[in-house]
Amino acid sequence: MSVTTSTIGFPRIGRKREMKIALERYWKKQSTLQDMLAVQHSVEEESWKAQKSAGVALVGIDQGTLYDHVLDTTFLIGCIPARFKGLSGYDAYFAMARGAQGAVALDMSKYFDTNYHFLVPELEDGWTPAPDFSHFLDRVRRCQATIGKESAVPILLGPVTYASLARSNTAAAPDLDVVLAKLLPVYLELLQKLKELQLHEPFLTTTKGAKLQAPTSAAYKQLAAQGVSLNFVTYYDDLGEAYPWVVSLPVSAVSLDFLGVPGASAPNASLDLPSVPLSHLPWDTALEQALDQGVTARLGFAVQKLGELVQLAKGVTNAPAEASPLDLSSFRPKELTFEIPDNLYRRPEAYSVRRTKQISMPAFPTTTIGSFPQTADVRRLRLQYKQGRLSQAEYERGIASHIGFAIGMQEALGLDVLVHGEAERTDMVEYFGAGLTGMAFTEHGWVQSYGSRYVRPPLVVGDIAFNKPMTVWEYKVAQALTPRPVKGMLTGPVTILNWSFPRRDISRRAQALQLALALREEVAALEAAGCTVVQVDEPALREGLPLKAERWEGYLGWAVDAFRLTTAVAAPATQIVTHLCYSDFQDIMAAIDAMDAVVVAAADVLTIENSRSSDEMIRALAAAQYGRDIGPGVYDVHSPVVPTVEFMKEKIRSFVASGILGGAAGATRVWVNPDCGLKTRGWDETIGSLRNMVQ
Question: Residue limits of the Cobalamin-independent methionine synthase MetE N-terminal domain (predicted)?
Answer without folding.
Answer: 5-259
